[in-house]
Amino acid sequence: MRGFSSASVLLALICLAVLSVGSNLRPLDIKTFHSLNRVGAPVVSPNQRLALFTTSYYSQAENKNAAFISCLDIDSGNITRLTEDRPGTVVTNPLWFDQDTIGYLKRGALYRQALQTDGAASVVFAPPVPISNVNYRANQSLLTFMAAVYPNCTLMESAAAKQRAAQRPDSAMVYDNLWARHWNEWMTPEKASVFTAPVARADEQWTVGRETSLAAMLPHTADPLTRWAVDDYAVSPSGSSLAFVVRPPTDNMTWSTNVDIYLAATGGGARPRLLTGRVGGAASAPAFSWDGQRLAWLQMETAGYEADINRIYIYTLATRETVAVAYDWDASPHALAWSRDNRALYAVVSSRGRNIVVEVDAATGKRRELTSGGSAGAVRPVDARRVLLVHSSTEAPADIRLLDTRSCASSQLTRANQDKLQDVQLSRAEDFWFTGARGDRVHGWVVRPYAYDRRKRYPLALLMHGGPQQASTQGFSTAQWNPNMYAGAGFVTVQVNFHGSPGYGQNFTDSVRRRWGDYPYVDLMRAVDYVTSRVGSVDRARMVALGGSFGGYM
């Protein structure tokens, strides 16, 4: 009888070990899913060596949310927790007051704390109404933030007006505009505005001065329910200029997609300057260059169309000139950040079921893809060569990575769910393409069930995205449509980016207009036929379709 070689015995032992490890893995269940840590966007320190980030999670044992701040050493990867980690304690909006002092929001107040674990914290600002999106510019000793207030009111006056409204014997409202309700919220007189406030620092005594609403200087509107509402803003590195995204009031806001960008001096006084007056579409994502000389933003050019392509506009403050760059690009970015040398923009864009980072030359529009698989976002430049970003994939929740923009190599700096997922099987997405409506190639992917055995038959779950001009991406969803939740329950899980989905050229996105009921339906049915005939292992008698919004309509 022929004996076994030592090499073959070793190989057999390795295979048995792998099988043993695999058999010990469990599926992703709902309790584990809801307990997962969620990593927030990094905030780079003034000396570009450290970054703050939040970690949030839900405690089922106490039925409470939690969020704490950690500090990441960018070069070493060392992580230090700075604030309390306890269910019921939620800390958000990390920022740097200086290299040794951080700030954050907690229970409605702005705190400051020395850069050390569980350091003593003190209140900087306790506003009478909730504030958000807080920034600080040390060279101007200036706070900027957003708050929803009543018409022409300070924060204190708005709080008093809300208290009087709460004492009314009724809750009746009169609407003279069809935009009476947006999603699940009724329109109220409180509208978001952007504020600045000076900060006086004298040793341990910090005082926040009277706030100024920059949007209050816009033209007056008679209807308090449809007046100006600020969506977002960006403040220049020097703190001298601020650009805010505002939805102007119209006679019928239900049908208007006009969203403008105004530029204002943070010192107030002069009326903000309208930068987008000649364009009727939606503007978004303002971003100042690091030298403060230019402002970039994303601009839709078609009025009344929410899924128009986003163009990149750049405004030069000194000359007041606006130019469009990369106009030939058949892609629609949804976030921008300037490179530290002010020569390029980092654009996050949907591309074939992924959110990737693309470097765009600010002068020529020349483009270079920096990432490929999974879903990237929250790009934060560190220096002329490196950026931090948040990245996830179908089989891995979001973590912070450090990307070298020259080599495109990246390293993972956080492992927020390593302990929670060490014994959990997460399946990867497997791409497939098929011929859909109009004879177009349509993209989808399948996630195989837990402990998949090709000899068995499994039920199929078809997860359909909303929109329809939205897209599923191969990132780790924290919502109910995470494919591994269904794969963990034993389903062959399928997602399809049917006609209308962005990431496949604007023509593909536009194609669903006035064809909402047929093109997506044809795509979905052909995707099911493709998976059941080509992928196999599907029990045709047990198939279910799930979706919300437009996905529910399908």
Write a brief caption for the model:
This protein is mainly beta and 554 residues long.
Outline the fold blueprint:
Layout: H1 6-24, E1 26-27, H2 30-35, E2 38-39, E3 43-44, E4 50-59, E5 64-73, E6 79-81, E7 91-98, E8 101-106, E9 109-114, E10 121-125, E11 132-137, E12 142-149, H3 155-166, E13 181-182, E14 185-186, E15 191-202, E16 205-208, E17 212-213, E18 229-235, E19 241-247, E20 260-265, E21 273-274, E22 283-288, E23 294-299, E24 311-316, E25 321-325, E26 333-338, E27 344-351, E28 354-361, E29 367-369, E30 375-381, E31 386-393, E32 396-404, E33 410-412, E34 424-425, E35 429-435, E36 441-447, E37 458-464, H4 483-488, E38 492-497, H5 506-510, H6 519-535, E39 538-547, H7 550-553
Parallel strand pairs: 1-34, 37-38, 37-39
Antiparallel strand pairs: 2-4, 3-4, 4-5, 5-6, 7-8, 8-9, 9-10, 11-12, 12-15, 13-14, 15-16, 15-17, 18-19, 19-20, 20-21, 22-23, 23-24, 24-25, 26-27, 27-28, 28-29, 30-31, 31-32, 32-33, 35-36, 36-38
Q: Work out the strand percent.
A: 35-45%
The Cα radius of gyration reads 26 Å
* Count of distinct strands: 39
Low-confidence stretches: 1-22
Cα end-to-end separation: 64 Å
Alpha-beta content class: mainly beta
Overall helicity:
10-25%
Number of helices: 7
Calculate the mean pLDDT score and round it: 91
- Main β-sheet, in a few words? 5 strands, antiparallel
Overall geometry comes to: globular
